[in-house]
Every structure is written in C-alpha cells, then in structure tokens.
Amino acid sequence: MDQSEHLHLIYIILAAALATFLTRIGGYVMMMQMTRIPPRMEAALNAVPAAVLSTLVAPAFVYGGWDVAASMLVAFFVGLRFSSLWMLLAGWLVVMAIRHFAGL
Amino acid sequence: MTKDDFWQGVRGGFPVMVSASPFGALFGALAVDNGFSVFDAVFMSITLYAGASQMVGIELFGNKVQPWLIVLSIFAVNFRHILYSASITRHVRHFSPVQKIVTFFLLVDPQYAETEKRAERGEPITFFWYLGFAMIIYVPWQFMTFLGAYFGQMIGDPRAIGLDVLLPIYFMSLVLGFRKRDNWLPVVAVSSVASVAAMHIVGSPWHVSIGALAGILLAACLPLPRQPEAPVTLENEV
Q1: Residue B53 pLDDT more than 50?
Q2: Using CB atoms within 10 A of its CB, is residue B29 exposed (0-12), middle (13-18) or buried (19+)?
Q3: Sign of the alpha-carbon torsion through B121, B127, B130, B132
Q4: Is residue B152's pLDDT more than 50?
C-alpha cells in the first residue's frame, strides 16, 4: 500500500469507529428522551440479548457444516451444566476429533 | 471500595478475556492477510473494539468494497449495541457524563451480558466495577491483535486448528446464560429461525438485525407477566 492508500484506510477505520460509538450511545440518547419505560418496551428490552445472540448462533449451526453442528450440539449439552470455558473446550475437542478422523 | 470494585470487575472479566484472546489474535492475523499493516490492525482494535464487525470490515476491505459500504456494514453488524445501550441505561443513570461516554464506548456483548446479570442479582453497578471488567478485556484485546498481526503467517488456516467453532459456541453460552428470563424459549426460537431465513434470503450481515427484531417484536407482543418478577439468579457464568 502506498501513502495515500494507507491514509484512506485510516479514514475508513475512523468513520467505522464513529459509527460503532453511535450505536453504543444511541440507545442511551433514545432512552433519555422518555420519562418512564412502558411495560411492553421493558419486555422487549429484556428479550434483546437472547434475540440478538441467537442470530449469531443459529446460522452457524445450519450453514457451518455437520462438523460444526455436531460440535455446537455437544457444547450445548455441556453448557446446561458447566461454564462457557468448558463449552468452548468440549466444542473444540469434538470439531478437531471429527476433522481428524473424518478427514474433513 | 472503588479499588475493590475494580478488582472484582477484573476477576469477573478474566474468563471473557481468555475466550476472547484467540479472536483478537485471529483478527490481527486476518487483517494483515487482507492488506492491513500491523499498525492498522491495532488502530482498528483500539478505536472500534468490536470483534465481529472488525472481522466483517477487514473481509470487505480485502475484497475492495467501496468505503461507504464498509462503514455501513460495520454499522449494521454493531446495530445491536443500540439495544444494549438502551437496556443498560436503567443501571448507569448515576454515572457522571464522562463516565457514561467511557461506559458506552466499552459496551461489548459480554460486558452488556454481565452488567445485566449483575443488576438482575441485585448487586450495585458501579463505574469502577464496570471499568475493571472492561479493562481486563480491552487491554489484552489490543495486545492479542498485535501478536496475531505480527505472527500472522504462523496461525495459517483458522479452520485447521478448530478456531472457527469458538465464536458461535461462545455466543451460544451467552444465550444459555439468559435462559431463566421471561419468554426466553419463544424469543430464541423465533430469532433463530428468522436469522436463518434472512441469511438465506437477504444475506449477511442483515440476518443479525432482522432475526433480532423478530424476537424482540415477539417479546413485545406476548402477554405480560402478571406479577412483578422475582429476581432471577443465573447459574451460568459468561
């Protein structure tokens, strides 16, 4: 990359950083306009984490291939009893074993 | 007291740091692979501090996509943070303006999840607890980005060493952590199906916003619980 291309990339990163910060403060700015939270909005807000995070899990399970799906399934059952680090370890071991023995 | 809060936050954030570190290194390696210098990679980690969107950004940059589309895509991937910041506003009203700016700048997924869980357990949300939890993730994130970018070639194919399954499994552990909340199962089911459908029809990264919106709208429409909720304790640590 030459000098002007590099500067160009720095501008892109700065614009992306600003866009990211706007998403992180945007909800606060919205909430401060309201005096009290209506119960249905409260219910909606309580659903946010599970709703968003599910969209990062389900497509990986469906489109990631059977090795990834199997590893996620094992991690799921581990996660019903143990912490996230054990889930990561179990899922990683399963996917590595499948790839090693099935030659994926 | 503030010092205790800070170190309690650091201890709480430690497991997150451990599981996020491979992604920091992976980001650094992939960034260099897509034409970034080591400086650019670390600069992006310092200013954005948003792993998934950073991955999307370098992928698009590597494919010579127009700058406005790169910025818009990063905005779309991070759009969920608007909902996070709206949701934690309840717990940080007592912070000073400068503390709020720092708080929202550092609002990543596990930080949000842990703040909500702490509030649910009835423990106080102090700025120094929040800062401690954030710093044990933020500082190593920069360091791991640097290491990954510097030793980029040594990581090679992330799939070959099984790194590709860690991100979805980590997000799944966060989902499981919220399983005692009202409407958890219907919300997870609807968001999962909607995101897969949106991935199929519209494509990435819109499946995130579309799938999330479906679950949130469902929660807003379902019957409200009659009594005020009893505080719920979560077994799962993030």
Answers
A1: yes
A2: buried
A3: negative
A4: yes
Together in a domain, A52 and A78: yes
Per the structure, how many domains does chain A have? 2
CA distance A91 to B155: 20
Q: Is residue A40 part of a domain?
A: no
Contact B195, A35 (CB under 8 A): no
Q: Which residues of B touch A16 (CB under 8 A)?
A: 44, 47-48, 53, 57, 70-71, 74-75
- CB atoms B174 and A87 under 8 Å: no
Smallest CA–CA distance from B40 into chain A, residue: A10
- Distance CA(B155)–CA(A9), nearest Å, equals 24
CB atoms within 10 A of CB B142: 17
What is the span of the domain harbouring residue A90? 47-104
Residue of A1, A28, A71, A76 to mutate for B, most B C-beta atoms under 10 A = A28
ipTM: 0.77
Say yes or no: A30 and A51 in one domain. no
Question: How does pLDDT run across B65-78, given as a tens digit for each residue?
Answer: 788 878 887 887 78
pLDDT above 50 (res B232): no
Residue B47 has which token pair?
């200013």
